[in-house]
Design brief:
With 962 residues, the protein is of the alpha+beta class. The chain contains 31 helices and 31 strands. It has five domains: 190 residues, HUPs (Rossmann fold, 3-Layer(aba) Sandwich), CATH 3.40.50.620; 212 residues, no CATH class; 210 residues, Isoleucyl-tRNA Synthetase, domain 2 (Alpha-Beta Complex); 200 residues, Isoleucyl-tRNA Synthetase, Domain 1, CATH 1.10.730; 63 residues, Ubiquitin-like (UB roll) (Roll), CATH 3.10.20. Strands 22, 23, 24, 25, 26 and 27 form a six-stranded mixed sheet that branches. Strands 2-1-20-21 form a four-stranded parallel sheet, sandwiched between helices. Strands 6-5-7-15 form a four-stranded antiparallel sheet. A hairpin with a 5-residue loop joins strand 16 and strand 17.
C-alpha cells in the first residue's frame, strides 16, 4: 500500500507560490548539486602520496576511514531498505568532514557469484555484461541519493586489475605456513630450509633430500595455509556444484533450486583458518564490535579445553577429543562419524560372535551395514544430523576398541550425530552424562554406567533413569584403576588428575580443541576468480609467478556446470572451465624450462574478493603492489585506541557475523604476519544497522500479491475483491512489496528520503516502512526553506542583526540544538538529531519575522550532513561561494546550553509533594534546605520527625519520615 503527497508533486500553477520547495524544485536542486560535486571532486580524500595525493593540510588532519559492507549489484536494483546503511555512513562521513577530518568514504561492488552466473545460464548473456549493467544501474540509484563517495576509489571485484591482487594474496597464503612457536605465518621457504638443514624433523623420519618431489609436496601440503585435500563437502548433483554450509537448508537441500545435497569426498582447496583460532578469539577483545557479534564469533570458533585419548584397536588406535576426560571410566562404546577415514580399515568381513541383532541394522555383513548407513547419512545436512529431537540412528562396524583406563572392550559404531568437522570425528560415548549418548545407548541396548554422584535424588541405578545426568559440581565415582583414582574428586581436580595419568601412561594428552573448521575455498562455477595454480604431469600443484597475474577467466560458450540426476550421489563435478581445453592445458616456463601443465578448473568462492577490499580503497590504482605501506599505515595503521589498526567505522548487516567478518580477519592476520600491512585487524569499529521492513500481503493460496494494490476496508485488507492476510516482514521484489528509492525521490526528493530513513528510529533496530509518513520530513524541509527564502520572490529573508540583538529564547534554542545535534551525530543517533533540528526550526517558525542570519546559517550547517542538497542551495543563497560540505560544524556556547533553572521533584514516602525550580549547579546541602523549607513539604510532614533525606541534586529530594 502506498500513497503520494499531492502537494509534493502538483505542478506549479499561476496561483501557486513560484519559489515554494516542491518535488520538482528538489529534483532540480539535487541534480545540479550532484553534478557540481562530481565536477569539483568535492569528496576526494587525499592520500599522503601517490596518484591520489592532495592538499597537505587536509592530509595533516585526523583521518576517518568509513565503510559500508560490499554491495552485490542485483538485477532487481535497490529498494528503499538497501540504502539505510549507505545514508547513515554518508551522514556520519559528512559530519566528520565538518569536524576537521580527512574522510575516506567510497563504495565498490562485490560482483562475482552465483546469481550472475545463473542469469547467464538462463539467457546466454555473459555474466560480465549483466553484472556491469547492474552496477551501472545501482551507481545511478546511489548517485541520486547524494552519497558523498570518493568515486576515484571505486571498483568491482570482477575487474582483472582487482582480482590480480586477490590471486596474489591467495599465493601469499599458499606459500605460507603457521609457526606455532612464533605464533605467526612465515614463508614456506623458511620451512623448507628447516627441513633441509635438519633443524626440523621431516614427518616419517626420512631426510628431506631423500624425498621425491611429490613426497615433498605432500609434506608441505600438511603445513601450507592454503592446501588441497580430499574433504567432505556438500555435493549437489542437481546444481552440479559443491555448496557451502550456508547454502544448504536445514532439511538437507540446496537453497537455490531445492535439490538434494549429499555428503561426498572431493579434492578441494581449503584455507587453514584453524591455525589462527586462538588469535581470532583473543583479538576480539580489542575490537569495538557489538557484543552479540563477538559472541557469535566466539561460539563459531568454539574453543574448548580437554584431552585427546587414544583407544587401541587392532594394533593401532582411534583418537577422540573430550572436554570431560574425568568421565573416561563411564565410556561404554565409541562412535565414529560415517565419513571417518578409519571406518573401512576397522570394518571386518563378518560380524563378531555374539553381535546384538539391534546393532547390525539387519545387514548380513558389517561392510553392507556401513555402506547402507553412509548412504543414508550422506543425504542429511549437518543441522539435521545434530537435531536434538530426532531418533538416534547408527550401526555397529563389527569392531571393538579398548578403553585405556580400564581395559574394557567397547563396541565401535558409526552414527550421524557425530561430525568430522569437530574434534577428531570420533567420540567416546558416556551415556550416563550426555543426553544424546544416553538416547543412543537406550536404543541400542548399551551399558550406562554412573560415574558422577547424582545430586537430584535419582540414585545411581541407571536402569531407572529417564535421562542423562550432567554436572560440573558433583563428585566422581566408580572411576579408578590400579594406577589412578578419581573417586570423590570434584570435576576440575578429576580432569587434571586423569589428564596427568593419560600423559604419563602414553594414552593421551591435554589439548585445546576448536569447533572452527578449515575454510572450504573451491567452487565448481565459472563466475569467480580463477586459481593461479597449475598442475604438472605428476599432479603436483605449482603457483604461477606474479608476472603471470592476473590469470583471467576465459570466454566459454556454456557457463553452467554439468548437472546430474538430483538423487544420484555417486557423481563428480564437471566445471565450466574444465571444458575449455585450450585454456586448461598450457605450456609454461615456471623457471625450469617450458613444460606442460593443467590449470585448476575450480574457482574461488564469492567471499574471496570481499576479504581485502578495504585495502584496495586505500590505493586503488597501484599496479605494482597490493598497497603502498605508507598509505596503508596512514589510513589503517595501529594508533591510540586502535591497537590492531583497521577501518574506523564499518557498517553492515549482522548476517555476516561469522562468514565474511571471520574470513576477512583471517586474511588480514596473514598479510600482517608476512609484513604486507601494519593492521592486524581489518575493521576496528563495527555497527550493525537494522532492517527496513514492509507488510507482505498474501492471498488464500499463500501467494504474495502487490502491496501497492491492496485496499484497507473495515480493518481488513483486500486485493481484487479477495480478502488477503497481512504480515510484517522483509521487503523485496519476490514479496511484491518493494518500494524503490527512485519512486520516493520522484515524489519528494532525495533529501526527504534521507531524512525519513534516518528519522524512522534508532539505526540499529528494524523498523516498518510507511510511505504515507514520508511527507512529514518533506514538510520539515518546506518549513526550513520558508524560514530563509520568500516563496513568492525567491529572495532570502534573513535579518542581518548582531548576536547580541537576538532574543535569548532563540539563542538558547539554537545552542541547545547545536550541542544536541553534534552529540547525536557523533553517536550515530540520527533520529534524535533530526528531532532537535525540527524543534529548532519550529521555534523559528513560531517566533515569526525574519530569522537572524547567524541563526539561519548555523541551522543550515546542522542540516548539511542530513539533507546535503537543500543545505548547499540555502548556503549559496545566503551568499557563500564555497561548498557547505567542508564548512566547520557549529559549536555551542555552553552559557546557552545549560538551563537557568531545572525542576526538582520532592518526594515523601515515594510520593511527589512539591516541585522546586532550582539552579542546575545547586549543591546537595542547599537543595536539602530548600526542600525542607518548602510550604507544601512542611504541611505534608505535619510535624513528623525525619529519619533520612536522600538528595540527588539538582532533580530529586526524597524524604523518609521517622
Amino acid at each position: 500500500m502506498s500513497e503520494t503527497n499531492p502537494a509534493a508533486t502538483a505542478p506549479v500553477t499561476a496561483d501557486a507560490a513560484p519559489h515554494r520547495y516542491t518535488a520538482a524544485m528538489a529534483a532540480e536542486i539535487e541534480a545540479r548539486w550532484q553534478d557540481f560535486w562530481d565536477a569539483e571532486g568535492t569528496y576526494a580524500a587525499p592520500n599522503p602520496k601517490g596518484d591520489l595525493a592532495g592538499d597537505p593540510e587536509v592530509v595533516a588532519r585526523p583521518k576517518k576511514f568509513i565503510m559500508d559492507m560490499f554491495p552485490y549489484p542485483s538485477g532487481a536494483g535497490l529498494h528503499v531498505g538497501h540504502p539505510l546503511g549507505y545514508i547513515a555512513t554518508d551522514v556520519f562521513a559528512r559530519f566528520q568532514r565538518m569536524t576537521g577530518h580527512n574522510v575516506l568514504h567510497t563504495l565498490g561492488f562485490d560482483a562475482f557469484g552465483l546469481p550472475a552466473e545463473q542469469y547467464a545460464v538462463q539467457t546466454g548473456t555473459h555474466p560480465r555484461v549483466s553484472t556491469e549493467a547492474n552496477i551501472k544501474n545501482m551507481q545511478s540509484q546511489l548517485r541520486r541519493l547524494g552519497l558523498g563517495h570518493d568515486k576515484r576509489r571505486s571498483f568491482a571485484t570482477i575487474d582483472p586489475e582487482y582480482y590480480k591482487w586477490t590471486q596474489w594474496i591467495f599465493l601469499q597464503i599458499f606459500n605460507s605456513w603457521y609457526d606455532d612457536e612464533a605464533k605467526k605465518a612465515r614463508p614456506i621457504s623458511e620451512l623448507v630450509a628447516q627441513f633441509e638443514s635438519g633443524e626440523r624433523a621431516v614427518p616419517g623420519g626420512r631426510a628431506w633430500g631423500e624425498l621425491t618431489e611429490g613426497e615433498r609436496a605432500d609434506v608441505l601440503g600438511e603445513y601450507r595455509l592454503a592446501y588441497a585435500s580430499d574433504a567432505p563437502v556438500n555435493w549437489c548433483p542437481g546444481l552440479g556444484t559443491v555448496l557451502a554450509n550456508e547454502e544448504v537448508t536445514a532439511d538437507g537441500r540446496s537453497e537455490r533450486g531445492n535439490f538434494p545435497v549429499f555428503k561426498s569426498k572431493l579434492r578441494q582447496w581449503n584455507m587453514r583458518i584453524t591455525a589462527y583460532a586462538d588469535r581470532l578469539l583473543e583479538d576480539l577483545d580489542e575490537l569495538d564490535w557489538p557484543e552479540a557479534i563477538k559472541l557469535q564469533q566466539r561460539n563459531w570458533i568454539g574453543r574448548s579445553e580437554g584431552a585427546r585419548v587414544d583407544f587401541p584397536i587392532d594394533g593401532e588406535h582411534i583418537t577422540v577429543f573430550t572436554t570431560r576426560p574425568d568421565t573416561l571410566f563411564g565410556a561404554t562404546y565409541m562412535v565414529l562419524a560415517p565419513e571417518h577415514p578409519l571406518v573401512e580399515k576397522f570394518t571386518p568381513g563378518a560380524w563378531p560372535e555374539g553381535t546384538h541383532d539391534v546393532w547390525t541394522g539387519g545387514h548380513a555383513t558389517p561392510a553392507e551395514a556401513v555402506a547402507a548407513y553412509r548412504a543414508q547419512a550422506a543425504s542429511k545436512s549437518d543441522v539435521e544430523r545434530q537435531a536434538e529431537a530426532k531418533d538416534k540412528t547408527g550401526v555397529f562396524i563389527g569392531a571393538y576398541a579398548t578403553n585405556p583406563v580400564n581395559g574394557e572392550q567397547v563396541p565401535v559404531f558409526i552414527a550421524d550425530y557425530v561430525l568430522m568437522g569437530y574434534g577428531t570425528g570420533a567420540i567416546m560415548a558416556v551415556p550416563a552424562g550426555d543426553q544424546r549418548d544416553f538416547e543412543f545407548a537406550r536404543a541400542f541396548e548399551l551399558p550406562i554406567r554412573c560415574i558422577v554422584e547424582p545430586t537430584d535424588g535419582r540414585g545411581t541405578d541407571t536402569s531407572t533413569w529417564e535421562d542423562a545426568f550432567a554436572s560440573y559440581d558433583a563428585k566422581i565415582m566408580n572411576s579408578s584403576n590400579d594406577e589412578v583414582s578419581l573417586d570423590g574428586l570434584p570435576v576440575v581436580e578429576a580432569k587434571a588428575r586423569i589428564t596427568e595419568w593419560l600423559e604419563r601412561s602414553g594414552a593421551g594428552r591435554g589439548t585445546v580443541n576448536f569447533r572452527l573448521r578449515d575454510w572450504l575455498f573451491s567452487r565448481q562455477r565459472y563466475w569467480g576468480e580463477p586459481f593461479p595454480i597449475v598442475y604438472d604431469e605428476d599432479g603436483i600443484a605449482h603457483a604461477l609467478p606474479e608476472s603471470m597475474l592476473p590469470l583471467e577467466l576465459p570466454e566459454v560458450e556454456d557457463y553452467s556446470p554439468r548437472t546430474f540426476d538430483p538423487d544420484d550421489a555417486d557423481t563428480q563435478p564437471e566445471t565450466p572451465l574444465s571444458r575449455n581445453e585450450d585454456w586448461v592445458n598450457v605450456t609454461l616456463d615456471l623457471g625450469d624450462g617450458p613444460k606442460k601443465y593443467r590449470r585448476e578448473t575450480n574457482t574461488m568462492p564469492n567471499w574471496a574478493g570481499s576479504c581485502w577490499y578495504e585495502l584496495r580503497y586505500l590505493d586503488p590504482h597501484n599496479g605494482e603492489r597490493l598497497v603502498d605501506p605508507e598509505i596503508e599505515q596512514y589510513w589503517m595503521g595501529p594508533r591510540e585506541g586502535l591497537p590492531h589498526g583497521g577501518v574506523d567505522l564499518y557498517v553492515g548487516g549482522a548476517e555476516h557475523a561469522v562468514l565474511h567478518l571471520l574470513y576477512a580477519r583471517f586474511w588480514s592476520k596473514v598479510l600482517f604476519d608476512l609484513g604486507h600491512v601494519s593492521s592486524a585487524e581489518p575493521f576496528h569499529k563495527l555497527f550493525n544497522q537494522g532492517m527496513i521492513q514492509a507488510y507482505v500481503y498474501r492471498d488464500a493460496r499463500g501467494i504474495a500479491v502487490p502491496a501497492a494494490e491492496v485496499e484497507e476496508r473495515d480493518g481488513a485488507y483486500w486485493y481484487q475483491g479477495e480478502k488477503v492476510s497481512r504480515l510484517l516482514g522483509k521487503m523485496g521484489k519476490s514479496l511484491k512489496n518493494a518500494v524503490t528509492p527512485d519512486e520516493i525521490c520522484a515524489e519528494y526528493g532525495a533529501d526527504t528520503l534521507r531524512l525519513y530513513e534516518m528519522a524512522m528510529g534508532p539505526l540499529d533496530v528494524s523498523r516498518p516502512w510507511d510511505t504515507r509518513a514520508v511527507v512529514g520530513q518533506f514538510r520539515l524541509l518546506q518549513r526550513l526553506w520558508r524560514n530563509i527564502v520568500d516563496e513568492n520572490t525567491g529572495e532570502v529573508t534573513v535579518a542581518d542583526v548582531a548576536e547580541s540583538d537576538i532574543d535569548e529564547d532563540t539563542l538558547r534554542a539554537l545552542h541547545k540544538a547545536i550541542d544536541g545535534v553534534r552529540q547525536d551525530l557523533e553517536g550515530m543517533r540520527f533520529n534524535t538529531a533530526i528531532a532537535k533540528v525540527t524543534e529548532l526550526n519550529n521555534h523559528l517558525t513560531k517566533v515569526g519575522g525574519p530569522v537572524p542570519r547567524t541563526v539561519a546559517e548555523r541551522l543550515v550547517l546542522l542540516v548539511a550532513p542530513l539533507a546535503p542538497h537543500v543545505a548547499e542551495e540555502l548556503w549559496r543563497k545566503l551568499g557563500h561561494t564555497d561548498s557547505v560540505v567542508h564548512q566547520d560544524f557549529p559549536v555551542a556556547d555552553p552559557a546557552y546550553v545549560v538551563d537557568e533553572t531545572v525542576t526538582c521533584v520532592v518526594q515523601i514516602k515515594g510520593k511527589v509533594k512539591a516541585r522546586l525550580e532550582v539552579a542546575p549547579s545547586v549543591s546537595d546541602e542547599d537543595l536539602e534546605k530548600a526542600a525542607l523549607a518548602d510550604e507544601k513539604v512542611v504541611a505534608a510532614l505535619g510535624g513528623a520527625g525525619i529519619r533520612k533525606v536522600i538528595v540527588r541534586a539538582p532533580k530529586l529530594v526524597n524524604i523518609v519520615p521517622a
